[in-house]
Hints:
Helix 1 runs antiparallel to helix 2, helix 1 (about 1-15) packs antiparallel against helix 4 and helix 3 runs parallel beside helix 5. Helices cover about 70% and strands about 0% of the residues. The N and C termini lie far apart (about 40 Å).
Amino acid sequence: MGSYDELAAALGVAESFLPNRPEERALLRRLSHEVFIANSEIASPGPVAKDAHRIEPRHVHRLETETDRLSGSLDPMHSFVLPRGGPGGAHLQYARAVARRAERDLWALHAEEPQRETLLQWANRLSSLLFALALAVNRAEGFAEIPPDYTV
């Protein structure tokens, strides 16, 4: 749960660095709410109460739809890229890294306390969306992606 707490904070920081991007800010705010839903689910193992807060297939579908939308406007990737860019894009890359760690933590928990497949899918898709969003923001703000230099 601590990793998802950190992710919620990282999303808030990223949002604060996108003052002139209302669409992206709204997306980050929605993702922040979803992170709290995920944390609620993680904190409430066992039988699902009728009114419990749970990540649902619609959450996974929205992540996939947003990722596809953002990725469709980007050039195909031919290599890894350094997690950089403008302030907004760089903070989104950081949030992506936190999301990936949170997903690994969730899988470690899953090994001891099985988690629902929908929650695991959502965790996996979240970092993909944050990556696509970071690339899109960087492009819109004029920051080119830099592939790693393996010869240094």
